[in-house]
Amino acid sequence: MPQHHPVGVIDIGSNTIRLVVFGGRHRTPLPLFNEKATCALGAGLEGSGRLNPEGVPQALAAVERFVALARAMEVERLDVLATAACRDAEDGAAFLAEIERRCGITVTLLSGEEEATRAALGVLCSIPDADGMVADVGGGSLELITVKDGRFGRFATMPLGLLRLSEHSGGDRERALAVIEQRLAKVDFMEEGRGRHLYAVGGSWRALARVLIDQMNYPLHVLDNFTLPRAEAERLIGLIARQSRKSLDKVHGVSKKRLPMLPLSALLLERLLQRVQPDAVVFSVYGMREGQFYLGLDEEMKRQDPLIASASRLAEGAGRFPEHGHELMEWMSPLFPDEAPELRRLRHAACLLGDIFWYEHPDFRAEQAFLRVLRLPFMGLGHRERAGLALAVYYRYASDEASEVVRTAHDLLDDERIRRVRTIGAALRLGHTVSGGAAGLLSRTRLTRGDTVLMLGVPAGDPLFNPEAFSRRLDRLAQELGLTAQIAQV
User: Fold this and answer.
1) What pLDDT does residue 242 have?
2) Full-model pTM
């Protein structure tokens, strides 16, 4: 099946309907287009048992538009999924039949288990080694499912979506708390998440993460893989759960439509943390739609490392000599004896990304490269790893921290990791200078790290390897390692 044709997913949720068009079947789902319509199909469902009569015509119009857009974009495949509101409403089946009649498409009504597994697949798409419990909250339901070693465990679905919780509680915090406790008490596998990670999925919890990042003055404004230890998460989220609407109106960066539900979403997550007792909560921007995308990949592609796959694609698309990154990786390996697999993986990504910003103006190249890597939608990167990768690419172009934003990233790293990324950056700079970025030249040289000396062996008498062209950068690399530089012509 062709990999470059776009694929689309329409998600008919209890609160919003969204179209996401992904740019082909690659290991990382990169959205070409993303639009949502807030129709609140699940509003009033708790009391009436039926879809919101005001939301139904809005939803029909939104789906018709999204189907037409997907066709205009010539998507290879369009998956249309419906979730809790359509599953639970008396008139849900009739509503979906009308969509199919108007649009000439097939709608898949997901069961609670299917909704839970797709949310888990979205997390696994980003974090293949995810270990713990995935919690996906929407407007109509909350799904819980355990994950380990790329597999699913037990699952539960319950009517604890924020629209339904708000209506059932009438806006009263104590009543909402009683409903949450009553429904969570029915889940008999909470202890399976103890001491592991809780992965929080869904737009309401993403909005909550934005507030936490803002209130903490956290140095990295990236939602995906924003992680907090449980004790700190409970304290901060508990504070938000108790804030008044007037206080919340002052919060920046959160949709006004999300703000009224923020205390409820915080209360639900706070109680879930207290029951599950994970070691940490991890906020994921990837969920059901990305899980549906991931289902369509072949098994070989699923086994790829999402970070290395993304970095390779970027190098192929923007690098001058894309194959050079792999050569740099092996060439500088003698500098990092006894390297842990996770650190080797991050160094590999830095080598692949080390030349994709060549087109930036030299005066701004280092900082632009840093900011791009810091904010690109990479999967499988914690915030500490993301900051280290961005800094390694920064030091490929510069030696010193020139701006506040670069210095701020240091706050996420310890001294040992900072020394490491500086060394990687200096090695990248030296390698590109020695070879000019051309493939096949670095293998004719050899780096050797001794107890006191960093040796670079180069072919004698070959004008390609004139030491005057790169001796300063070899000195710089040696300085980062606390060694003395030597060049040996052999």
Assistant:
1) 87
2) 0.91
